[in-house]
Design goal:
Helices cover 74% and strands 0% of the residues.
Length: 68
């Protein structure tokens, strides 16, 4: 699974992280509707773990995971 959020996060521009998290939120809603929420959660958790040094992104992803 790849979302439009991935290139934003890869660029490392912290002022764009909110956009990435919004995309991930939409993907989470779609995954929930499709019964694929566990796969989505694994994707977001992997992204969070791979980008652990991005201290502004990590709490945003943690908050998103709590919503689902």
């Amino acid at each position: 699974m790849q979302s439009p959020a991935e290139p934003i996060v890869e660029q490392g521009k912290h002022d764009s992280y909110e956009t990435a998290v919004r995309w991930l939120g939409r993907a989470g809603e779609a995954a929930q509707a499709a019964g694929e929420l566990e796969e989505w959660r694994e994707y977001v958790e992997t992204m969070r773990d791979e980008h652990y040094q991005k201290y502004k992104l990590r709490p945003m992803l943690d908050d998103l995971l709590e919503e689902f």
